[in-house]
Amino acid sequence: MTTSSSQKPGIFAIRDVRSLITETAEEGHGLKKAVGSWQLTAMGVGAIIGTGIFVVIGEGAGVAGPAVILSFVLAAVACAFSALSYAELASSIPVSGSAYTYTYATLGEIVAWIIGWDLILEYGVSVAAIAVGWGGNLNAFLDAAFGWTLPDAIAKSPEDGGVFNLPAVFIVLAITALLVRGVTESARVNLVMVAVKLVVLAFFIVVALFNFGTGNFQPFAPDGVDGVTAAAAIIFFAYIGFDAVSTGSEEARNPAKDLPRAIIGSLVICTIFYVLTALGAIGIASPQQLEDSDAPLAAALDQGAGISWAAGILALGAVVAITSVVLVIMYGQTRIFFAMCRDGLLPRRLATVNQRYGTPARLTIGLGVLIAILAALVPLSEIVKLVNIGTLFAFVLVNIGVIVLRRTRPEMPRPYRVPWSPVLPILGVLFAVYLMSDLPLDTWIRFVVWLVVGMLIYFLYGYRNSRLRREHTDGTPGWAREDEQS
Length: 486
Fold this sequence. Notes:
Oligomer: single chain
CATH topology: Amino acid/polyamine transporter I
Structural class: mainly alpha
Low-confidence stretches: 1-6, 476-486
Strand content: under 5%
CATH class: Mainly Alpha
Shape: globular
Distance between the termini: 32 Å
Number of strands: 0
CATH superfamily: Amino acid/polyamine transporter I
Helix content: 55-70%
Largest sheet: none
Mean pLDDT: 86
Number of domains: 1
């Protein structure tokens, strides 16, 4: 959006892509380019493969029967349209912030604020909820491997009958310390954890292959197409996480090539493992056995293959899997918050990069403490549903962003281009809207309340302190004025 020299940019003002890229090189406010395509791909796999495959396969099998295998494929296709759009924008606008930044460059500041505020909630609640799940899986591993567990008083939140969820606090603070230390170190640790959980899933697949039978595949689709699509809606959320790769755009060594490879590659790798795991599970256990267990893969090995000791291995795999999810999702949240602070929509001083570690250390520590408190004490059973609507909302805007930017900036370099645009981005929007329509009314109400609170903060603080608006007023970069005052 262009504005005359005498007119202050409005709430739909658009950030110029060249300006967004230029500000990443500002002294004290630019992130270190330290990760390559393999590390970024591992981040995507780390964010996607978590409790989803270890738990949700049972729910899906209960709905679709053996056709849950097709549900995994359908859910992957639904995600693929949005993944392609993320890949185009991430390679074209290699700046921290993911959907927030892409929206700022295509649909304007107010829409960018809405999606940024939405992502803050989505990532924060997601990390807290996953940390709580980490504590539960840690206890399951201790029980399976050693026959003892942590007492409920320090292993569960007040919502679940405990006093203080110590494991959740521990994992959040440990990940916070790692993220402060540096993105290179974080990526290396994540790479190791991804390797471990893929080995655990490969172990399951191989064991299932040697004990495979076809008796559980009849009837293949007891509820027909409706059952397959209903299960796909459940399984869809086991794929969420590839978008976290795009939050590392600014720290990629070669974003033009690395980001599309990582976003699409992580989705392909996870789809292959998911489909093979589902195929193996049905080959050794009935859909009913999977549905009736809280640990369906362990139940499949125990009841189908007669390997009772495998429960410990799968429990360990779940703990490692969830740890890497906490790491990547929390990393994504810090980079989105960092981008919003650097743009002035939130306090700019929080976006100062620590010169020793090359990370926004102050911001990371603050978010880590808040999330640890949330995970330890706050009831999460209801607000965690906001993660789903937040992710789908981001998918809608990213797909629209590709269409808009193709029309408004056709000359802009695009190292990766979504094929058959705008058809595929439109399909991405339709899939996301369809899944959003199935979410309960109370989730929509909570989502709207959160956005209303966000709008109040924007008009009271963000609008007046926006870097875009301040630079238009006197031509001086917002950072320069703030650095002079500090």
